[in-house]
Structure formats: C-alpha cells, structure tokens
Amino acid sequence: MKFRSDQTPMCRFCTRGKPIPGTEDAICTLYGVVSADYCCKKYEYDLLKREPRRKRELDTGKFSPEDFMI
Fold first, then answer.
1. What are the angstrom distances between the C-alpha of 16 and each of 19, 34, 37, 63?
2. How far is CA 5 from CA 8, 12, 26, 46, 54, in A?
3. How far is 1 from 49, CA to CA, in rounded Å?
4. Is the Cβ–Cβ distance between 37 and 13 less than 8 Å?
5. Among 1, 4, 8, 36, which one has the highest count of C-beta atoms within 10 angstroms of its own C-beta?
6. Over the stretch 5-60, which tens digit does the pLDDT of each residue have?
C-alpha cells in the first residue's frame, strides 16, 4: 500500500518493522534493531500501524434551539 506524500516514511509504519516495548527502537526483519524513525529503500507502508487522530468534541453549549429552526 502506498503512503501519502505528506507522510514521512518511518520504520515504525513499515510492514517489516515491529516496535520494541519500552524503547524508541524497532526490530526490522532485514536490518535488525533500528531507530523507529529510520527508513530504508525496502520500506512498505502498513496502514494498520498508524494510530488515527481523535475526533474533536462538538461544543454544544454554543447552540440554542433557535439555531436549528428554519
């Protein structure tokens, strides 16, 4: 799967990289222990490794019933 051009390729989002718990490093199946920010020429983006951004909460205190009337 391709990644967007505004995303920086990193080992933590690669199909071959697995994070090491308690550290900032990752284990690559090709290169062994590498920095999580490292990226090699064999990089393949794994969509399921990215954490989605949280949705913003709607501030309903600003609205009144008159705002929804036609």
1. 10, 11, 13, 49
2. 8, 17, 23, 15, 22
3. 12
4. no
5. 36
6. 667 788 888 888 888 898 888 888 899 898 888 888 888 888 888 777 888 888 87
